[in-house]
Design brief:
The chain is an alpha/beta fold. The chain has a domain of about 170 residues: Rossmann fold, CATH 3.40.50. It has ten helices and twelve strands. Strands 3-2-1-4-5-6-10 form a seven-stranded parallel sheet, sandwiched between helices. Helix 2 packs across helix 3. The longest helix has 14 residues. It is globular and about 55 Å long. It comes from Myceligenerans indicum.
Length: about 300
C-alpha cells in the first residue's frame, strides 16, 4: 500500500461507509470526504471512527479545498460519483497538482463503463476511469455490478416493476464490494494490483422473476415481477430511487445483458465466495422491513 493517509471520497454512501469501517478496523489513517457532516460514518454510539478525519467537500468546493483534502495523502479511493459527492475531476486535478507520480488511486467504477455505455452512470464512470489512467498515479479499477439493495427499490404493493425485460443481473452485496476493495488496498504484495481492472459481481445472475421469488420467500408476501416499458416506468411509485433517469437507463443495461456475466473476483480478492441475494437478505433483514406481513409495501 502507498504510504500516507487514505482519502476516501464518497464515504457517506453505502459502499463507502462499509469501506470506512473496514479500514478503521485495520487501523488505517483515513480522511473521509463527505458532502456534509451528517453523512460521515460513525460508530453505533455516535462517536467518530478512530484514526479518521472528516472533510466536507461538494461540487462547489474550490481548488484550495481539494488540494487540502489530499495533503499528506498517499492513496485516493473514489467510491462515489453522485450529485452530492465531489467531482472526481477536481480530486484528480488536485492529485496532478500535488505531483502524485508515486500516489495510488482506486476507483469503484461500474460494470458496463464505456464511452457509449447504456447506463448513464456507466458513461460517467468511463470518463473517470480515463482520467484515473491518465493521472500518472498507480491505479486499480473495480467495476461493480448493481447492488442488492437496488433490486428492491421498485417493489410496490408486492409487485416488482422494472423496464428490464428478461435480462439478468449478477447483483452484489455492498459488503462484498467493500471487502474486495479493502483486500486490494491492504495487500502486502507490492504492485500486484497495479493497472488491474476487476469485475465485482455476485455469484449468480438473477432475472426479475428470480428476485421476486426470493423476496416472496423471505417476506411471506406474494411478490411477483412485472415487466414495464421505460415510458411507463416514469409514472411508477419509486420512493427508493433518487435518480429516475439513471435507474431506467440501468434497467435498459440489464435488459441488454450488460450485468449478466458472473465473475469470481470477490473470491479471488477477499478469499471467500460472494454472498447470494438470499444470504444478503438474511444478513440485512431491515432492508425488507417494508415488505413483511403487517407492514406497508412501498
Amino acid at each position: 500500500m502507498a504510504g500516507g493517509t487514505v482519502v476516501l471520497a464518497g464515504a457517506g454512501g453505502t459502499i463507502g461507509t462499509q469501506l470506512a469501517f473496514r479500514l478503521a478496523a485495520e487501523g488505517t489513517q483515513q480522511r473521509l470526504v463527505v458532502p456534509d457532516q451528517a453523512r460521515a460514518p460513525r460508530l453505533p454510539d455516535g462517536a467518530p471512527l478512530p484514526d479518521a478525519d472528516v472533510v466536507v467537500l461538494g461540487h462547489t468546493a474550490g481548488p484550495d479545498e481539494f488540494d487540502a483534502a489530499l495533503t499528506g495523502a498517499g492513496t485516493l479511493i473514489i467510491a462515489g460519483i453522485g450529485a452530492e459527492d465531489p467531482d472526481p475531476a477536481n480530486l484528480l486535478a488536485a492529485a496532478r497538482r500535488a505531483g502524485w507520480s508515486r500516489g495510488r488511486i482506486i476507483h469503484l467504477s461500474q460494470i458496463g463503463a464505456a464511452a457509449e455505455g447504456i447506463a448513464t452512470h456507466a458513461r460517467r464512470h468511463w470518463s473517470v476511469e480515463e482520467a484515473v489512467r491518465a493521472s500518472g498515479a498507480t491505479w486499480t479499477v473495480l467495476r461493480v455490478s448493481i447492488q442488492f439493495g437496488t433490486l428492491i427499490h421498485a417493489v410496490h404493493d408486492d409487485v416488482l416493476r422494472a423496464p428490464a425485460g428478461r435480462g439478468r443481473v449478477a447483483a452484489v452485496s455492498p459488503a462484498d464490494v467493500a471487502d474486495a476493495a479493502t483486500a486490494v488496498l491492504l495487500d502486502e504484495r507490492a504492485h500486484v494490483h497495479d493497472g488491474a481492472t476487476y469485475r465485482i459481481t455476485g455469484p449468480e445472475a438473477l432475472a426479475g422473476a428470480d428476485v421476486a421469488r426470493t423476496l416472496a420467500t423471505a417476506t411471506g408476501r406474494a411478490v411477483r415481477y412485472e415487466q414495464t416499458s421505460a415510458h411507463d416506468a416514469y409514472a411508477l411509485p419509486l420512493p427508493g430511487v433518487r435518480d429516475l433517469d439513471a435507474w431506467i437507463s440501468c434497467c435498459a443495461a440489464v435488459d441488454s445483458g450488460v450485468f449478466e456475466e458472473v465473475d469470481d473476483a470477490v473470491a479471488r480478492l477477499a478469499g471467500r465466495p460472494a454472498r447470494t441475494f438470499e444470504s444478503w437478505i438474511d444478513d440485512y433483514p431491515r432492508e425488507l422491513a417494508a415488505l413483511r406481513p403487517g407492514d406497508t409495501a412501498g
